[in-house]
TrEMBL record:
The keyword GTP-binding does not apply. Gene3D superfamilies: P-loop containing nucleotide triphosphate hydrolases (3.40.50.300). This is Polar amino acid transport system ATP-binding protein/general L-amino acid transport system ATP-binding protein. PANTHER family: AMINO ACID IMPORT ATP-BINDING PROTEIN (PTHR43166), PHOSPHONATES IMPORT ATP-BINDING PROTEIN PHNC (PTHR43166:SF4). The keyword ATP-binding applies. Belongs to the ABC transporter superfamily. It comes from Rubrimonas cliftonensis. InterPro entries: AAA+_ATPase (IPR003593), ABC_ATPase_HisP-typ (IPR030679), ABC_transporter-like_ATP-bd (IPR003439), ABC_transporter-like_CS (IPR017871), MetN_ABC_transporter-like (IPR050086), P-loop_NTPase (IPR027417).
Amino acid sequence: MTETVISLRGVAKTFGAFRALDGVDLDVARGEKLVVCGPSGSGKSTLIRCVNGLERHDEGEIEVEGRRLEPGTLDAVRAEVGMVFQQFNLFPHLTVLRNLTLGPMRVRRLSRADAEARARAMLEKVRIPEQAAKYPGQLSGGQQQRVAIARALCMQPRVMLFDEPTSALDPEMIKEVLDVMTDLAAEGMTMIVVTHEMGFARRVADRVAFMDAGRIVEMAPPAEFFAAPRTERCRAFLANIL
Ligand code: ADP
Ligand code: MG
C-alpha cells in the first residue's frame, strides 16, 4: 500500500498578473524522494514554499498528511514539514546548540535537557557533534547547511523540503551535504528536493520532475527521465546543466 503524504490538485499561485504556479497536480508517497529541477523562475521555490504554507496558494488544494492546508491548519501542517533553504537561515547570534534547541523548546515544549539531548543526537547524525558550542559564522558553509538540516530534524518532521540546499556552497562542501541528505533518504524520510545535482537525483530520487513556467512538464523515475526526456524544453535544460 502506498500512502500519499503530500497531495496537490490544480495548485496555482499568482504574483500580480504573473502565474508562478499554473495548475500543479502532484502526489508524493510515504518515503518517496522527489527531485525537482527546472530553469530559474520556473516556480520550484514557490512550489515547495506553498507546500509548507510559507506562500499561500490561491487556487487548488494542498494536503499534507491528510490535512488540507488552509489558514486554520497552517501551524499543524508546518509542524510536520521541515524546510532547508539555500541560505541556511541560522540565527547568527545563537550557538549551534541554541539554534537547534530553540524550536523544540518553544514549539514542542521540550525541557532544555531533552532538547539538548535531541540536538546532540542530530548533530551526530549530520556528522558535526564537535561544533555544538560554536556560532554559525565560525563554521564553513557546508557545516552551516548541515546545522540547518539538523535543526529541521530536531522538530521531528514527517516530510523534509529542500530548496537548492547546495547552491550557495563551494564545490568541495557540496558532497558532505548531499551525503547527509542521502543518509536521511536511506532512513525512509519523505523528501522533496529542488536541486540541479543530477548525480544525487540519479542515486537517490524515486522520481525526477522538470518544471517550466509554473507547471510540472515531465516526471519520471531517474533512469527514464535522463535517458529519454520527452519534451524539447527538458532536453535543452539537461543539455545545459549536464
Ligand atoms: P525558481 O525557484 O524555479 O527559480 P520561483 O518559484 O522562485 O522560481 O519564482 C517563480 C516566479 O515567481 C519568478 O518569476 C519570480 O520572479 C516570481 N516570484 C516568486 N516570488 C515572488 C514574490 N514574492 N513576488 C513577486 N514575484 C515572485
Ligand atoms: Mg528557487
